[in-house]
Amino acid sequence: MSGVPYQTFPPAQFWKNAASASELALVDFDFGKKFSFKASDGFGTAGSCFAQHFGRKLIERGGRVLFAETRHPLLPETYGHGYEVFSARYGNIYTTRQLLELLQQAAGLRAPIFEFGKRHDGRILDMLRPRAVPAGFANVAEAEADRRYHLLAVQHLLRSLDVFVFTLGLTESWENSAYGYCYPIVPGAEAGEFDGNRHKFVNYSVAQVTADLDAICGIVRALNPHAKVMFTVSPVSLVATAEPRSVVVSTVASKSILRAAVDEVVRRFDYVDYFPSYEIITSPLTRGRFWERNGRDVTAEGVQTVMQVFFRSRFEQGGVAEPVAAAEVKAQDAENEILALLEADCDEVILDRFNANRS
Q1: What is the pLDDT along the chain (359 residues), one digit of tens a residue?
Q2: Which of 95, 60, 307 is nearest to 186 (CA)?
Q3: What is the pTM of this model?
Q4: CATH number of the domain residue 328 falls in
Q5: Which Pfam families has this protein been placed in (predicted)?
């Protein structure tokens, strides 16, 4: 037995210790992290629907989430402006390819991409962020001007932040085969028209996602040599799959590809790290209690547990405040509120409109 390496391993590296923890929030899921944060660090957030929770919870505890695009004081809060969902008005970014192409444009490495479509109400939408500006635009000139401003705002965000947090969501996407760029959601679902000769389905591989992440990290550091990058993987399942197989199988394949690619990239760069929100939610230790009734969306308790682990692990004690205690709310009301928010802010949910068999 002498000299066996496992004898010197800490408790976090043994399943028995994790399984015997009195609370899930006390399990050292984040053991082995490369770096921690200060309360003064400025965070830039981007990614899938699950990433929205991160920003909200960080703000609740007094953390600094940067917003490069903010609402004009004369614009009513009730107006469909789309500000302060993420650090810039890009809306949900589900794939690494979508993020890479955005950063390439913002950094001047690629010419701005202008593609606009008309919504059913006649308003103009930016096809590369069709739900990021809920009110839409009056005309193409207004939409183009806003996109130019948006790209400058993204560049400013990258130069200003201390930590860039990106939550990876999907591997499936649709591309414009003529001009070589991808969409956040299939054309025709929210605006524009689907053209089978021009719009091509793609499902990115581990190698493709890894290459995208490498390039993303390179752009971030070129614009901001001191920035740290933190990746997470969304645990939320696909609403629908374009692969000819079960959506359950596609979900597992997609998340596995993303997780494998992130693992490769995190090993390469000392300024890049991973936070295990995916593992916290999907671990057998949770016994499924962090899922809503639909089996897809994460409960409020699940989000809270993820953030408890994050703040306990990544911030010095006293670095950020405890969340403000809210008035007691009935469990059903809280669940309905979360589902409503997800359906309002998650682009992918609109694909369920096309489910002919839904009840």
Answers
A1: 568 999 999 999 999 999 998 888 899 999 999 999 998 999 999 998 777 878 888 888 888 999 999 876 666 666 556 788 889 999 999 999 999 999 999 999 999 999 999 999 999 999 999 989 988 999 999 999 999 999 999 999 999 999 999 999 999 999 999 999 999 999 999 899 999 999 999 999 999 999 999 999 999 999 999 999 999 999 999 999 999 999 999 999 999 999 999 999 999 999 999 999 999 999 999 999 999 999 998 998 998 999 999 999 999 765 565 554 433 334 445 445 444 544 555 666 556 655 666 65
A2: 95
A3: 0.88
A4: 3.40.50
A5: GSCFA
User: 231 - beta bridge partners?
Assistant: 166, 274
CB within 8 Å of 285: residues ≥ 6 apart: 18, 19, 24, 27
| Structural domain includes residue 65 | yes
Range of the domain at 191: 41-354
Quick check: 65 and 74 in contact, CB under 8 A?
Answer: no
Q: In whole angstroms, how far apart are CA 193 and each of 127, 163, 199?
A: 11, 38, 10
User: Is residue 303 a part of any domain in this protein?
Assistant: yes
Q: Which residues contact 12 (CB under 8 A, 6 or more apart)?
A: 18, 28, 31, 32
CA neighbor of 303 nearest in space, from 52, 31, 27? 52
Q: Tell me the residue type at 140.
A: V
- Answer whether residue 18 is part of any domain: no
In a domain, 23, yes or no: no
Structure tokens at 194: 């689907």
